[in-house]
Amino acid sequence: MAIKNLPAEELLRPGGGGCPGCPSTISMRVALKALGKNTIFVMPAACAVVCVGGYPKSSFDVSVMSVLFEAAAAGASGLVAGLKRQGKTDTNVVVWAGDGGTYDIGLQSLSGAVERGTDFIYVCYNNEMYSNTGIQRSSATPYGAWTTTTWTGKAEGKKDLPAIMRAHGLPYMATASPSYPEDLYQKVRKAMSIRGPKYIEILAPCPPGWRFPMDKTLEMGRLAVDTGALALYEYENEQLHFNLKSKSILEGKTQPKPIEEYLKLQGRFGHLFKPERNEQALSRIQADLDRSWAKFRKQVECGLA
Ligand SMILES: Cc1ncc(C[n+]2csc(CCOP(=O)(O)OP(=O)(O)O)c2C)c(N)n1
Ligand code: SF4
Asked: From the CA of 146, how far away is ligand 1's center (Å)?
């Protein structure tokens, strides 16, 4: 599918509160083209809910239910049950949450909703930190990254939440990027066609938090895929299927670019390059990444996910 073939209707209007170049807003615009008007968003505390705009104004042409930080998936479960009671089973109930609200504080409510088989789509736009409250670390923040609570670089690696979601045995999971809108669109459409819980994780390069110029969001997303920092895939019927360049990286047909090419454009990793290169940290980051691809290859070879 070509980008010009995406539906022309815009359900995200101008006037939202996101920063220029906001990856959540760009992704939301594409997702709404897939979802259409019969959609209700459930949003916990995060940038995205601020981006909607201040009540009574809204930049969205669909309803948004704002819930407590820890309760997005529980709120969605209630909404799905209420709609079902009214006979409305064709409404898309979609959680749109940051990584703080997903990897950390909302994890129990997400796990519970998935375990109960709730028919909803949960989207995590993962900007790898708590950006709305001033860039604090989350369990999705990668090793070595600066945040206001990891001044010298995070000492721990990130939690593998996609693996935790797959371990729930849910019917559909995918990773996506605002830099590949056609792929994101198709993954949202696929999620809409499947009953039960669906989880989509969007890697969201955030200019103020990652410290890069705001016109470089899409370039950063493409570099994430080119270096293998983001693996684009779908998980369906307990199988992993890789997409776009991630497929040829997995199959060894494309050599990923060195991770440094991605890191050195982000101010949050600036301390790894100056005043002098931190070879130990850089090699650890590359080695961790290589290991995660080796694991993916094994999983695909053995038909495991
Ligand atoms: C229980 C609770 N703790 C803390 C907060 C403050 N808070 C509001 S938004 C936010 C950060 C959200 O981070 P994330 O989910 O990663 O989304 P992002 O801001 O990055 O878009 C925090 C800590 C809150 N609203 N409720
Ligand atoms: S801080 Fe990042 S995620 Fe939040 S509105 Fe700005 S660009 Fe978007």
From this structure: 18
